[in-house]
Amino acid sequence: MRKPIIAGNWKMFKKLSEAVQFVDEVKGQVPAASKVDAVICAPFLFLPTLVEATKGTDLKIGAQNMHFELEGAFTGEVSPSQLADVDVQYVVLGHSERREYFNETDEAVNKKAHAAFENGLTPIICCGETLEEREAGQTVSKVSTQVTEALKGLSKEQVIQSVIAYEPIWAIGTGKTATAEEANETCGEIRSAISEAFGADVADQVRIQYGGSVKPGNIAELLSMEHIDGALVGGASLEPASYLQLLEAG
Ligand code: PEP
């Protein structure tokens, strides 16, 4: 049995005071970590404060990106060791917005995935196709390549601990969700690609989230699917009530 993981991606929203208010309201109501992994991926600036505010609770904190180098002359970047130093536990890698606006490549995502494990962080590795790619029948090859390239060179144990987020780009922030069947089919293809690269024993244990306009009203159906083990959620993770409803479905 794969434990569901529901991760909020706050993107570049909220002020520090609003972020603290959110976690103060939510942290006591989060379902037990034995039932569901509850994560909030917040802007860098908020991370140490949110980690402190959630200490000893079942709400875990993640970053939305990082550099793959431990330190150096990389103005404006944040390193994996800096995230680990303030006890951040998760990091989103290769989100489509980073790939599109900041030229993040499969190669960079792979380096970041290695750096994440070397620093005790759990990567949430994103993949997804554009509408044009879907219509051209390229969904499976696109997402399989993104995932196998991202995981290249990791040990079986590290692959098992990785979280994959399948996020069709046309469904992010658009209100258009892939149907549960469509999402499940692609998540199943991702699992097959992992099985081919690392073995069925590994693929069976990797958690694959769906992301793209997930809300309290559609999460239960998505999570009922064989290959969907959680959700990466943007808009609907910004309000405590709706985030808690997402966790309750987990
Ligand atoms: C996301 O931020 O990864 C995402 C899926 O956003 P939304 O839920 O708003 O579509």
UniProtKB/TrEMBL annotation:
User: Mainly resides where?
Assistant: cytoplasm
The record places the active site at: H95 (electrophile), E167 (proton acceptor)
Q: Which residues bind substrate?
A: N9, W10, K11, G173, S213, G234, G235
Superkingdom of the organism of origin: Bacteria
The EC designation for this entry is 5.3.1.1
Entry-linked InterPro entries = Aldolase_TIM, TIM_sf, TrioseP_Isoase_bac/euk, Triosephosphate_isomerase, Triosephosphate_isomerase_AS
The pathway to which it is assigned is: Carbohydrate biosynthesis; gluconeogenesis; Carbohydrate degradation; glycolysis; D-glyceraldehyde 3-phosphate from glycerone phosphate: step 1/1
Taking the record's annotation, the residue ranges forming a coiled coil are none
What are the GO MF terms of this UniProt record? triose-phosphate isomerase activity
* Compartments, as annotated in UniProt: Cytoplasm
- Catalytic activity entry: D-glyceraldehyde 3-phosphate = dihydroxyacetone phosphate
Q: Which CDD domains match?
A: TIM (cd00311)
UniProt keyword terms in alphabetical order: Cytoplasm, Gluconeogenesis, Glycolysis, Isomerase
Which SUPFAM superfamilies does the entry link to? Answer: Triosephosphate isomerase (TIM)
* Subunit-structure text: Homodimer.
Which family is this sequence assigned to? Belongs to the triosephosphate isomerase family.
Q: What's the stated role of this polypeptide? A: Involved in the gluconeogenesis. Catalyzes stereospecifically the conversion of dihydroxyacetone phosphate (DHAP) to D-glyceraldehyde-3-phosphate (G3P).
HAMAP family attached to this UniProt entry = TIM_B
Name of protein:
Triosephosphate isomerase
